[in-house]
Amino acid sequence: MIIVGVNAFHGDSSACLVRDGVLVAAVEEERFRRIKHWAGFPSQSIRYCLEEAGVGLGDVDVLAINQDSKVSLPRKIGYVLSKRPDLKLVLDRIRNRHKRQGLPELIAQSFPGETFRGEIRNIEHHMAHLSSAFHVSPFEEATVVSVDGFGDFSSGAWGIGRGTDIDMQGKVYFPHSLGIFYQALTQYLGFRHYGDEYKVMGLAPYGQPSLMDEMREIVRLDSDGGYQLNLKYFRHHKEGVQYEWKDGIPEVGQLFSDALTDLLGPLRDTSLPLEQRHHDIARSVQAMYEEAFFNLLNTLQPKHGLKRLCLAGGCAMNSVANGKVRRQTAYEEVYIQSAAGDAGGAIGAAYAAWHASGAPRGFVMDHAYWGPAYGADEVATLLDSGKQEIADAGCTVTTFDDEAALCAHTADAIAAGNVIGWFQGRLEWGPRALGNRSILCDPRRGDMKAVLNAKIKKRESFRPFAPSIMAEHVPDWFEEDDNVPFMMQVFQIREERRARIPAVTHVDGSGRLQTVHKATNARYHALISAFEKQTGVPMLLNTSFNENEPVVCRPKEALDCFLRTDMDVLVLGDTVIQRVRDTA
To answer: H-type helices in 459-507, by residue range?
Structure first.
């Protein structure tokens, strides 16, 4: 059976393909369209997945989408009748529903000459999230939790996964949402783009949680683990807040009301530097999220008595909170797949459809390399067509026929303080660069954050860079030892080690680590091993290979990024392109 799963008409549009219960391919549409968080119908992602599987549209048995507008219909009607929201809010929801109902037409338009004969199956939004975590986890039984903004009139869901079944036992319904809380306060702090919440998470360690009384006025916790918003501080439940999920960049209008500025003070003027007040608000927002998150988990754990936890939904991208689960709850193991947010709903929709037929489990997602790969012939063609531009940039080109020599050469360059573009194998699934589309640097250099921001990233100075560490060395460098292959948890770096790796140690002594395994990414592991042999440090600074754009997908995008920035070295497969610097 062939199932195509999609997240469509929403930010981080994506698609995957599952054949007989095994994931074959998965990718976000933004990687092809080159527009961050691209929203709409993921036609190019679907096309890639079909090509990777070697099948046509006519071979697809089920197209599963992570949305079902029929879910919670009585609640929706009751809300409209009792609360009488702005007409624009109602019309926006109707328009979004009509888009989803037009899937057959969109499929036909996107794939002219091909005929889709399969079934379109709608999977409730949070069931797709729960499935995206549990059904690809290594656990036979676990507590499953989804927390996000909204989907199908709810913002959170939880229950128990056993075998192929997920028993959803509780929900938080519209208009209450931890995702909306965090997004609204992100907007208040001047970070207005869709997906900017990670900036608040990065800013938080610079502040103190001095506004918890105000935060507890905004978010109220329930004894059953749920949460409620004090709606006087928000607009989304009553007014027609702009939500644009059309082709292109997602846009969300202002979510908070004037009452929030009465409570917290004036909005941040983004033309001025951040003040301590903004740091303290960010820390308080993060602390309030964690208070609500752990209230839920510490209600569920004794109720279920389980030691394993699967997390999904946009809020499961909060790696700081995720990293505290084992310290602040009785859960002992945590699984969060690499695309925990809405993109991951494509996988959840596909696996929910697969297991609904009674099919057994067997697949475990232990790596994130499910996107396109490009061979040596494509790299050679690119280098031939761009040879003049490469020469004009003062670069040498060397191709290695021995992997150990390639890794040793690259490790030398990193240890010398160079910034490396590392392009290998299949593209990562999810927002994190995990060693195939990465920019790599020496974590020992205290100035490396400034160097990276000056040469390439040009991003806020408070945002941290992450360490990729050989899995076998984690307990030597971090206070906890766990498998974190998708960079979804933040752990404390051992105090005695922090001075050795200042470039990846955040202000609070933490690091958002990625554990690298030889079995799942042998070349990346070999590179880090080569660096460790030279320096005694078994990790590299790893950040995404991009410059204010989606992570690079194709070799040409990698070369273009290299040439227009001040990157020192580009490793495309077996080929090294290196700028010759004037040392005089």
So the answer is: 474-477
Fold of 376-579: DHBP synthase (3.90.870)
Residue 544 in contact with residue 551, Cβ under 8 Å? yes
Predicted confidence at residue 239, as pLDDT, reads 80
DSSP string, 65-128: ES--TTTTHHHHHHHHHHH---HHHHHHHHHHHHHHHTHHHHHHHHSTT----SEEEE--HHHH
The CA distance from 510 to 499, in Å, is: 12
* Domain 2-126 matches domain 131-340 at the CATH topology level: yes
d(C-alpha 235, C-alpha 243), whole Å: 12
- Tell me if residue 6 falls in helix, strand or coil: strand
**pLDDT confidence of residue 457:** 78
Mean pLDDT by 10 residues, the chain (584 residues): 96 97 98 95 97 98 94 68 60 54 88 95 97 98 97 95 97 96 98 95 97 98 96 90 74 95 96 96 98 98 97 98 98 98 98 94 97 96 96 96 98 97 98 98 95 86 94 97 97 98 97 98 98 98 96 98 96 97 65
Beta strands 251-252 and 243-244: pairing type?
A: antiparallel
Residue 24 token pair: 């074959």
Short-list 216, 190, 194, CA closest to 278? 190
pTM for this predicted structure: 0.95
Q: How is the chain split into domains, by residue range?
A: 2-126, 131-340, 376-579
The CATH architecture annotation of domain 2-126 reads: 2-Layer Sandwich (3.30)
Question: What is the chain's Cα-based Rg?
Answer: 23
Q: How far apart are CA 292 and CA 298, in angstroms?
A: 10
- DSSP characters for 153-175? TEEEEEEEEETTEEEEEEEEETT
Q: Give yes or no for a contact between 320 and 204, defined as CB atoms under 8 angstroms apart.
A: yes
Do you find a cis peptide bond into 85, omega within 30 degrees of 0? no
Name the CATH architecture for the domain at 131-340. 2-Layer Sandwich (3.30)
